[in-house]
Amino acid sequence: MTDLTVGATARHRMLGRATIGDQLRRHAQHNPDREAIVYYGPDGSRSVMTYDDLNVRVNRVANSLAALGVRRGDVVAVMSRNSVDYMTIWFATLKLGAALTGLNFTFTATEISYQVNHARPRILMAEDVFCDRIEATREAGALQGVEHLVHSSADAAEPPAGWLAFSSLVSEGDGAEPDCDVQEDDVAMLVYTSGTTAFPKGVLISHRNYLISTTPAWTLALDLGPGVVWLFVMPFFTIAGLGSMTSIINCGAKIVLAHTVDPGAAIRIIAAEKVTYMAQTPTFFLAMTTQPGFGDADLTALQRCITYGGTVPSHMITAWQEASPGITWGTYWGQSELSQLGTVGWFSSLGDIPGGDASWIGKPVPQLEIRVVDDDGVDAEVGELICRSPSVMIGYLDDAERTAETFRDGWLHTEDIVRIDADGNLFFVDRKKDMIKTGGMNVSSVEVERALYGHDALMEVAVVGLPDDYWSEAVTAFVVPKAGRSPEPSEIIDHCRASLAGYKVPKAVHIIGALPKDTQGKILKRRLRDEHS
Q1: Are 214 and 20 in contact (CB under 8 A)?
Q2: Based on the number of CB atoms within 10 Å of its own CB, is 260 exposed (0-12), middle (13-18) or buried (19 or more)?
Q3: Within the chain, what is the greatest distance between any pair of CA atoms?
């Protein structure tokens, strides 16, 4: 059992504070034997960790990190796929009053060096398969300020020379609660945006953001509670990954975690673990429907499937309704700058969606206040979504100018264009940067994508604006056909003419084998623009 006592330094501060590490300790105290994590390792092995197991492990690592010099206000960086080690060092960091920043494991040396030199972590943990990349970056003199490198390995492999083994942090650390003064306004996570137009911004998120706003919103709007069994497929280096995992543990639910999850593995794990909740991009849910075992698997335990970050094709919903008729779908919108807080809407079939408009992103959760405004800041039916909430970030790290630009007139400006109806339903129009300006008219790439998905030969689609001497930007479609189908570009263009005004119809259609995606399955429109401009 966890030693739940703390030293005099922290004791007097704990009477009324709210930190994420405190909540893990409480779960270990109240429900020590409740399963917190079911983990499928890289070799397919299955292991279980209770809340008490997790808390003791976290304490051991926290005390080891403290012995290495990690203090309140420091930063710890991690480059790894999802793992129990990742979860452990996250909560250990929080118990010391430090912050964690996750490095995208697909990053090049240039991208690694930018984030590390901007975040200035004292400790950097890397999974074994990424150590060579970290070493190459360090040898180039691009990891300034990192004092210790920590090696995480699922098979107990030896760390590179000069690296510490994460397993030693676990085995050598004291399992008692760390004696640290942590405050709810301390930075908990440093999440980097995608950086589509400039260097990524470092979003500063506090313990308070989650404990008094985001996690309570999830319990109310997503029905998240101790009985939930959540298959986790979102990478921890994203706000969707780290943030969702935090709220799930805050609520005392169970995470089913796999080192690597492809669509086929997800189907097998859902059936084996009786998974009740899952969240991912539409592309991942769509890919699951194409797996050979999809139609035969027992997926009936699934209650909630939450999707975000892309257009939902109707054929995806239809396929899932046949496999598991009891699923309630959630459409979710959120932002890093809102600590993942946002809007949610639930539907069982496409007929439940207000007005039949698949761009629906629901209504604001209880902790979020919103307005929709035009360029002059006047309330409008269609315009930019602006927000305020206890979940709003502290700001961007070392970037007062962009923080002030985002925080204007007492509101957070999201740069997302939405439509609001008389009942308060919100419908996503486009990101400002993805709006296509063609022939003096604005075209939503999302609207064109919905029209394309109405063609029964198309599996996936993406629409961007490409430079054009006459149109300024030409509406351009990239489409992936369904297996065995070979539609002609002219046929697809004619299909769009039936439902879109002439200026919205794609000027060109490119038929390709696959769309570029990030590690979450989000389509990388910027890469399409860069490669075809």
Answers
A1: no
A2: exposed
A3: 75
CB 305 within 8 A of CB 327: yes
Q: Which helix (H) or strand (E) holds 232?
A: strand 229-232
- Torsion of the alpha carbons at 318, 240, 53 and 262, rounded to the nearest 10: 50
Give Cβ neighbours of residue 184 (< 8 Å, ≥ 6 apart). 17, 18, 19, 206, 207, 208, 211, 212
Structure tokens, 356: 């039949």
Tokens of 78: 């991690």
Q: Count of alpha carbons within 13 Å of 134, Cβ hemisphere only?
A: 30
Q: Do the beta carbons of residue 434 and residue 399 sit within 8 Å?
A: no
What's the length of the chain? Answer: 533
pLDDT tens per residue across span 272-285: 999 999 999 888 99
Q: Are 338 and 240 in contact (CB under 8 A)?
A: no
Give the type of residue at 146: V
Which residue do the tokens 């992103």 mark? 361
Tens of pLDDT, residue by residue over 58-72, are 999 999 999 999 999
Give, for 109, the enclosing helix (H) or strand (E).
helix 109-119
Bridge partner list, 123: 76, 148
Q: Which residue has the tokens 């640290």?
A: 180
419-475 residue pLDDT tens:
999 999 999 988 888 889 887 778 888 889 989 999 999 999 999 999 988 788 899
What's the whole-model pTM score? 0.86
Q: Do the Cβ atoms of 303 and 348 come closer than 8 Å?
A: no
> Which of 224, 239, 236, 222 is closest to 335 using CA atoms?
239
pLDDT digits (tens, 9 = 90+) for 293-325: 898 999 999 999 999 877 788 888 888 988 888
